[in-house]
Amino acid sequence: MDPSQQEPTPDKSEAHHLELISDTDSPAAGILYVGIDLGTSRTSIAASNGVRATVASVVGYPKDVIGQKLFGRTTLFGEEAIEKRMSLDFHRPLEKGVLKGAGGVEGDEGDVRAARDLISEIIRRARPKKDELIYAVIGAPAEASMKSKTAILEVAKESCDSVMICSEPFSVAYGQEMLEDVLVIDIGAGTVDLCRMHGTMPEDADQITLDTAGDFVDSKFADAINASHPEARFSKEMLKAVKERYGSVAVEMEPCIAEFPINGKPTELDLTSELRDSCRAIVPPIVKGLSELISTFDPEFQDRLKGRVLLAGGGSQIKGLDTAIEREMHEQLGSGRVVRIEEPLYGGATGALKIAHDMPETYWERLK
Ligand SMILES: Nc1ncnc2c1ncn2[C@@H]1O[C@H](COP(=O)(O)OP(=O)(O)OP(=O)(O)O)[C@@H](O)[C@H]1O
Ligand SMILES: [Mg+2]
């Protein structure tokens, strides 16, 4: 592949599709550019000062003064909030990447406040200097409506001086400098998003969303263990941790030995085949989705599309998944080449940061 053919500079037509606002007129030298991946389960940031950070997309507020005193803070985020959730007014402000309580999505004022606090927290973790202006590109799900994008802009406004919303698969592909004839598979917790790119912003017909993602693997895994070891006790979190440690679709995978209590006694269980089968269950729906996106594409370019499939998102870290999807593509579609992006957890954020860098200064200024 010739990299010179994938000049990443966004053209006017693409920029047209980006929703922009700015509340600054004179961006001085002191600008911190950030790319933010606002996910349902995890929010990540990549900043032009080299800082990267990620936090679970949950926010908790102590229910009363005693709680505030106990935690010494009025707001808790991520893992800490999950841990203390019982004594908190607890919010997961995003659902399928869309803000709850805004843009016609169910939710309440608390969710909106949580979203606002989550964005300012992730920016704080990028350690901007005092007085530095924040120019942010935020990835939203490709299928997010105008209304929910506007809602994201509204809550981001508070902590950013200039904000641009782009579609998540677009930022992933942009980060890889592959905007033309490429298929992006983004495996999250709640959804797998398949997106076809052909040089413009993806439209409805270019996208398929499946619910056979990370949570689906977890529940399959739970069912399989309940069937093979009905006496074992475990929580969703325990299973998820085992999956993230051992998850694989390979025939020759590292044995998955987990310790779960049976009748109150910690007991080692070999869950290798249960885990492998649960992970493998996501392959057929993905390839079926790819095949729909490929078969409705210009026949002349279908093969090119098959040869340029990008695998991203937390769930793409299941070992051997790229090869397994490739194999299934060969069987179902005759050919296929799948590349897992190098940093699946930061693919969206680093791509968004790259967009921020490449946007001409005048372009940011012109916003408002
Ligand atoms: N090492 C790993 N192996 C397998 N799965 C993993 C691994 N690490 C994380 N995951 C899974 O990835 C999923 C979360 O992915 P990601 O953080 O990309 O989601 P998200 O973007 O917040 O969610 P969504 O796309 O649904 O809005 C979870 O199901 C998690 O268990
Ligand atoms: Mg995501």
Protein topology:
Blueprint: H1 12-16, E1 19-22, E2 31-38, E3 42-47, E4 52-56, E5 59-62, H2 65-71, E6 76-77, H3 78-83, E7 88-91, E8 94-95, E9 98-99, H4 109-125, E10 133-140, H5 146-157, E11 162-167, H6 168-175, E12 182-187, E13 192-197, E14 207-210, H7 214-228, H8 236-246, E15 257-262, E16 265-270, H9 272-280, H10 283-295, H11 302-306, E17 309-312, H12 321-333, E18 338-340, H13 347-358, H14 361-366
Parallel strand pairs: 2-10, 10-11, 12-17, 17-18
Antiparallel strand pairs: 1-11, 2-3, 3-4, 5-6, 5-7, 8-9, 12-13, 13-14, 15-16
Helix pairs in contact: 6-13, 7-8, 7-9, 10-12
This protein binds adenosine-5'-triphosphate and magnesium ion.
Adenosine-5'-triphosphate binds at residues 39-42, 96-97, 188-191, 213-215, 240, 243-244, 247, 313-315, 317-318.
Description:
The chain has 368 residues and is an alpha+beta fold. It has two domains: 3-177 and 345-366, Nucleotidyltransferase, domain 5 (2-Layer Sandwich); 214-280, ATPase, nucleotide binding domain (Nucleotidyltransferase, domain 5, 2-Layer Sandwich), CATH 3.30.420.40. The protein has helices at 12-16, 65-71, 78-83, 109-125, 146-157, 168-175, 214-228, 236-246, 272-280, 283-295, 302-306, 321-333, 347-358, 361-366; strands at 19-22, 31-38, 42-47, 52-56, 59-62, 76-77, 88-91, 94-95, 98-99, 133-140, 162-167, 182-187, 192-197, 207-210, 257-262, 265-270, 309-312, 338-340. The strands form five sheets. Strands 1-11-10-2-3-4 form a six-stranded mixed beta sheet. A five-stranded mixed beta sheet has the order 14-13-12-17-18, sandwiched between helices. It has a three-stranded antiparallel beta sheet with strand order 6-5-7. A hairpin with a 2-residue loop joins strand 15 and strand 16 (265-270). The longest helix has 17 residues, at 109-125. The protein is globular, with a radius of gyration of 21 Å. 45% of the residues are buried. Mean pLDDT is 87; it is low at 1-28. The structure holds adenosine-5'-triphosphate (ATP) and magnesium ion. Magnesium ion is lined by residues 39, 186, 188, 313.
